[in-house]
């Protein structure tokens, strides 16, 4: 399949929508962590809109990631910028596919913890929350490196459709 010259409008909207949803998962993390601890301590769990937000927002991330994967396989992604060194190219390829794995495994582990009461799944969720944060830091650093050092205009690929 020939590679497209850029991302489609839908791919771009989905990228930024998922960034916003994931940011909310981190910013509003306390209520679900407290509810989880309370439930494990034997307390009754009352309805809390912020806990519901974590569950629904997280499941939405999985649904949108599945949609993104379909688009990724159907439409593809633009080739890496020419200035990019082979090692950086391989790293960004690995990072992008790792993101897809996290966007599915975070909600899955959270759901297994929350709906099946599995402590192991909550532990996996907690390990992955740190890994996803670290990967996002690297991703943003790579975008800044592209903008400032390589001047490959990679950010505009995620702002304007081809
Ligand atoms: C991409 C999606 C998700 C992200 C980025 C995410 C992120 C987080 C974060 C940052 C915490 C930390 C709480 C803390 O240590 O203070 C957390 C806890 C938790 N999340 Fe998620 N979450 C996601 C999806 C979900 C979903 C869909 C569910 C349930 C259906 C869920 C259930 C839980 C539970 C039960 C905890 C408490 C675990 C514990 O404290 O040991 N998460 N999540
Ligand atoms: C948790 C948050 C994030 C996730 C999960 C994520 C995920 C991804 C993924 C999977 C791709 C590959 C394109 C695709 O297949 O759809 C991508 C590309 C991209 N992301 Fe993110 N991203 C996040 C945050 C950010 C942030 C904060 C920025 C801004 C600095 C950013 C800028 C970009 C750019 C410019 C590209 C295009 C790279 C290229 O064309 O090679 N991302 N992102």
Describe the structure.
The chain is mainly alpha-helical and 162 residues long. It has one domain (9-158). The chain is 77% helix and 0% strand. The chain contains six helices and no strands. The chain has helices spanning 9-27, 30-40, 49-75, 86-116, 119-150, 154-157. The chain starts with 8 loop residues before the first helix and ends in a 5-residue tail after the last helix. The model has no long low-confidence stretch (mean pLDDT 96). Bound molecules: protoporphyrin IX containing FE (HEM) (2 copies). One protoporphyrin IX containing FE (HEM) binds at residues 22, 25-26, 29-30, 32-33, 36, 54-55, 58-59, 61, 106-107, 110-111, 113-114, 122, 125-126, 129. Residues 22, 25-26, 29-30, 32-33, 36, 54-55, 58-59, 61, 106-107, 110-111, 113-114, 122, 125-126, 129 line the site of one protoporphyrin IX containing FE (HEM).
Secondary structure blueprint with pairings:
Layout (H helix, E strand, L loop, with lengths): L8 H19 L2 H11 L8 H27 L10 H31 L2 H32 L3 H4 L5
Helix pairs in contact: 1-3, 3-4, 4-5
The chain binds protoporphyrin IX containing FE (2 copies).
